[in-house]
Every structure is written in structure tokens, then in C-alpha cells.
């Protein structure tokens, strides 16, 4: 096949093939994926609406939760609708520019997700280890600055990705053996030696993910140390229950994301369908779980939602 000239006026298209080896199950796989997307959209929008309406929830924890909810909405919406078109309608074609746009949103907002997990861990550390100084340390100005830094970091580190891919000639094939446009899946189609480009992308993802994960682990070590020193056993169990659910979501995100990153580097013998399926999990499961763990299990949000539903029914 001749090189795909990305500067040609006619749009260049790629073909997303879904999960290799599981094409016959695409229709059935789309059902739980769609269900998770609906829960993610409804749950995260509910959190945003409740926090906006209830002024008593304008606290650091809930403000960071709103930032995480916006990130989840963008991350899931940039992947799931297009993925369901592939699974249910057989829509394999995706325009080159649309592919690069999707790739940018996926990678940059995954970095934002990681950054807001770290921000929420820091908030929990301050709230539990320094409760009397919580509101003075995490003022609205500092919360805003943290949010801006997280966004700038995600955009700055991953803005070069579409620019780099735009410059490459593509001649091997137009087929992307994936359910969405991922940087490593696209760069493999280039005619040139892209070793340096691949190393840059993997390095950025590894640095951001590992640094955030290490800092989160350190914060939870201090949190657990403070929790076990609480005089009341009931208070200790309550704090452990809250932290435990948060840690579960974080572990799902970082373990699946780490598996996907290191598979590109070292896992040459791992079957493609396993790699791609797990790559979908780390994009779909956190936006699905976050509203449940951070929303339903949070008493103030749960009470506001129930109170609103009761008023509407009456």
C-alpha cells in the first residue's frame, strides 16, 4: 500500500478492528460497556449537580471530586460512543484527524485522572492528619491552583503526541488492531523508525503514573498511621472503610494502566485480546466506579439525592 499522505486534501481514514480474536463477541461485549457508560454519565453528572446546588458541599474533597467527575465524563465520552459504533454498527472507519483528537483526549485526560486521584489523596491526608488546619491549608485559591497545575501538566506532556504523529508517513497498513486510537497502536503503522517517539511516549506515561502512584502511597501510609492512633475504634473502622474504597478504585486504575504501559515495552508474548481488553478496563472502570465509591458512599451527597427524589415524588 502506498504511503498515506496526511497533507492530502482528501481525508485519510484508519480502520479500528476492535478486540482481535473476539470479533464474534463484539455485540455482547458492548452491552456491559454501554451499561458502565450510562452509570458513569448519570453518576458523574449527578455529583456535579448536587455539589453545585448544595453550598455546604463546597469543601476541598467535593471540589476535587467535581474535577474528577468532569475528567471522567470527558474520558468516557471520548471513547465509549465511538467504541459502541464499532461493536454494534460495524463502523470501523475513523478519520485521521478524528483519530488524533481522540488519542489526545484519552492520553491527556488519563493524566488528569491520575493527577486528581493524587489531589484527593492529599486532601484526605490533610483532613485526617491535620483536621484543624484542613480549611486553612486547602483554601479555594489553592484548590484552584492545584486543578490548573494538573490540567496544564496533562496537556503539556501529551500535546506533542498528535503533532509527532501528524508528521509521520504511514505505509504499512491502515488497520489499527484496537478499539480506540492509542498512540502506540498508531505509531506502529509508520514507515519510519519510531523508536525515539515510542520511548518518549512511554517515558511520559511512566513518569506521570509512577510519581503520582508513589505520592498517593506515601499519603495513605501517613493516613493509616493516623487512623490507627484514633482513640475510638468505631472512628478507626469508619476511616478505614472510606480509605479502603478509595484505595480499591486507585488500585484498579494504576494496575490496569501499568499493565498496558509495560505490555508495550516488555509484553511481546501477551495475547493481543488480553492487552486490548485490559486497556479498555482502565478507561471504562474508573469513571464507572468513581460516582459509586465517592458519591453513593458519601453521606452528604447520598442524603441530598434522596431528599431531592422524595420532594419530587411528593
From TrEMBL:
Listed transmembrane segments: 25-50, 62-91, 103-122, 143-160, 202-223, 235-254, 274-296
Domain of life of the organism encoding this protein: Eukaryota
GO molecular function, one term: G protein-coupled receptor activity
Residues forming coiled coils: none
UniProt subcellular location: Membrane
Record membrane topology: Multi-pass membrane protein
SMART domains: 7TM_GPCR_Srsx
Domain (G-protein coupled receptors family 1 profile): residue spans on this chain: 43-294
Keywords, in A-Z order: G-protein coupled receptor, Membrane, Olfaction, Receptor, Sensory transduction, Transducer, Transmembrane, Transmembrane helix
GO cellular component terms given for this protein: plasma membrane
Principal subcellular localisation of the protein: membrane
Keyword Transmembrane assigned: yes
Pfam families (alphabetical): 7tm_4
Stated role: Putative odorant or sperm cell receptor. Odorant receptor.
Protein name listed in UniProt: G-protein coupled receptors family 1 profile domain-containing protein
Originating species: Muntiacus reevesi (Reeves' muntjac)
Taxonomic lineage: Eukaryota, Metazoa, Chordata, Craniata, Vertebrata
Amino acid at each position: 500500500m502506498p504511503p498515506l499522505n496526511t497533507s492530502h486534501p482528501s481525508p485519510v481514514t484508519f480502520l479500528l478492528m476492535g478486540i482481535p480474536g473476539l470479533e464474534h463477541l463484539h455485540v455482547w461485549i458492548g452491552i456491559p460497556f454501554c451499561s458502565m457508560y450510562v452509570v458513569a454519565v448519570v453518576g458523574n453528572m449527578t455529583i456535579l449537580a448536587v455539589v453545585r446546588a448544595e453550598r455546604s458541599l463546597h469543601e476541598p474533597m467535593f471540589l476535587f471530586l467535581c474535577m474528577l467527575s468532569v475528567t471522567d465524563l470527558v474520558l468516557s465520552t471520548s471513547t465509549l460512543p465511538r467504541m459502541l459504533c464499532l461493536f454494534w454498527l460495524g463502523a470501523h472507519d475513523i478519520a485521521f484527524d478524528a483519530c488524533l483528537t481522540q488519542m489526545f483526549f484519552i492520553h491527556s485526560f488519563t493524566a488528569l485522572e491520575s493527577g486528581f486521584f493524587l489531589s484527593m489523596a492529599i486532601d484526605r491526608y490533610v483532613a485526617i492528619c491535620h483536621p484543624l488546619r484542613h480549611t486553612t491549608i486547602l483554601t479555594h485559591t489553592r484548590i484552584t491552583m492545584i486543578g490548573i497545575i494538573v490540567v496544564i501538566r496533562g496537556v503539556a506532556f501529551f500535546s506533542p503526541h498528535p503533532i509527532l504523529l501528524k508528521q509521520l508517513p504511514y505505509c504499512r497498513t491502515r488497520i489499527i488492531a484496537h478499539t480506540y486510537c492509542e498512540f502506540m497502536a498508531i505509531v506502529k503503522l509508520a514507515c519510519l523508525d519510531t523508536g525515539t517517539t515510542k520511548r518518549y511516549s512511554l517515558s511520559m506515561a511512566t513518569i506521570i503514573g509512577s510519581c503520582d502512584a508513589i505520592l498517593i502511597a506515601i499519603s495513605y501510609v501517613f493516613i493509616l498511621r493516623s487512623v490507627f492512633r484514633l482513640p475510638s475504634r468505631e472512628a478507626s473502622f469508619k476511616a478505614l472503610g472510606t480509605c479502603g474504597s478509595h484505595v480499591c478504585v486507585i488500585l484498579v486504575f494504576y494496575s490496569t494502566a501499568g499493565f498496558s504501559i509495560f505490555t508495550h515495552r516488555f509484553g511481546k508474548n501477551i495475547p493481543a485480546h488480553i492487552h486490548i481488553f485490559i486497556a479498555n478496563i482502565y478507561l471504562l472502570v474508573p469513571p464507572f466506579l468513581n460516582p459509586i465509591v465517592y458519591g453513593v458512599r458519601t453521606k452528604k451527597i447520598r442524603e441530598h439525592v434522596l431528599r431531592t427524589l422524595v420532594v419530587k415524588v411528593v
